[in-house]
Amino acid sequence: MQYRTLGNSGAIVSNYALGTMTFGAEATEEQSRAILDDYLAAGGNFIDTADVYSSGVSEKIIGRWLADRPEDRDKVVLATKGRFPMGTAPNDVGTSRRHLTRALDDSLRRLGVEQIDLYQLHAWDPVTPLEETLRFLHDAVSSGKIAYYGFSNFLGWQLTKAVHLAKAHGWSAPVTLQPQYSLLVREIESEIVPASLDAGIGLLPWSPLGGGWLSGKYKRDAPPTGATRLGENPDRGMEAWKARNADARTWEVIEEVEEIAGRHGVSPSQVALAWLADRPAVTSVILGARTTSQLADNLAAADLVLTPGEQERLTEVSNPRVGVYPYGPMAHEQRSRKLEGGR
């Protein structure tokens, strides 16, 4: 395991984080505790959850695990999120001071801690003024309820606006952003990655295996079955079967990943994770696991070193399709210049 600063903060986290969306849903409490034990034993120290994961059950499982291991609390950098509905009333959702006050207190109670190391807005809120949200987060830092804050699923302009509003008011600055990012989903490189680099924001990619596609468990034109996410629900979310299966780029990427995995004698998952962990601005890649065996396979990516040629080939074959403007090659040239001058 490698260790990096948490974005532009001084906190240190492992370059592979443990995502816990499966806890209480796809993994029982017993399985979840085993996953937590194995992750900590492997040198990981960064645990990510959210209030909406299993309607608070994920946080409760982590809280009970921490209560049984008080000596390990200071080893763990604990992250959670608030924003999505935890009830049906109008004020049970969003990033208003009213909702976040309750959401944060509830997360602290479920986790059984006095301070959350990283508190994240789970998504942009188009209703609440950003100043209201940022002032709440600054106050939460000042009161000691949270150490740092970050965002999830923000666009580039939203991140930049938040960074500069906080700076203008002298409020605590954000340190991280959680976007979806993988060899199959690289659109964030057009705006979000540059905005993060400009602000010193650390990226915490979620769904690094493209919802399981990059693990090699799906086959072309063979609808998934069995106890996998797509086997149980082929139309599940952004990684739904039909659209990705019909896209030739999906299989070009998977074939390249599998070829490189074969040369190294490792799993396709490890290749995909190793490529992502070395991308610009990435602080820690969030791993999701149903079982300890899945976690062990993913964590082995920490020992895999891809050659420059392999990294280049993966980057080339997975290049996202863009239009001519504003993200095409000629448009990129318009935004560059040679130090020696000339065209």
Question: Can you walk through the features of this model?
Answer:
The chain has 343 residues and is an alpha/beta fold. The protein has 13 helices and 10 strands. The chain has helices spanning 29-41, 57-68, 97-111, 130-143, 156-169, 192-199, 229-232, 241-246, 248-264, 268-277, 292-299, 308-317, 329-334; strands at residues 3-5, 12-14, 16-19, 46-48, 77-82, 116-121, 146-152, 176-178, 202-203, 285-288. The chain has an 8-stranded parallel β-sheet with strand order 9-8-7-6-5-4-3-10. β6 (116-121), α4 and β7 (146-152) form a beta-alpha-beta unit. α1 (29-41) runs parallel beside α11 and α9 (248-264) crosses α10 (268-277). The longest helix is centred in the C-terminal third of the chain and has 17 residues, at 248-264. The model has no long low-confidence stretch (mean pLDDT 95).
List its salient traits:
single chain; 343 residues; alpha/beta; eight-stranded parallel sheet; 13 helices; 10 strands; 12% strand; globular
Strand and helix layout:
Blueprint: E1 3-5, E2 12-14, E3 16-19, H1 29-41, E4 46-48, H2 57-68, E5 77-82, H3 97-111, E6 116-121, H4 130-143, E7 146-152, H5 156-169, E8 176-178, H6 192-199, E9 202-203, H7 229-232, H8 241-246, H9 248-264, H10 268-277, E10 285-288, H11 292-299, H12 308-317, H13 329-334
Fraction of residues in β-strands: 5-15%
Largest sheet: 8 strands, parallel
Uncertain runs: none
Radius of gyration: 20 Å
The pLDDT mean sits at: 95
Strand order of the largest sheet: 9-8-7-6-5-4-3-10
Based on CA inertia axes, which overall geometry fits? Answer: globular
> What distance lies between the first and last C-alpha atoms, to the nearest angstrom?
45 Å
Which bin fits the share of residues in helices? 25-40%
- Helix segment tally: 13
Structural class: alpha/beta
- One letter per element, helices H and strands E, the order comes to EEEHEHEHEHEHEHEHHHHEHHH
Number of strands: 10
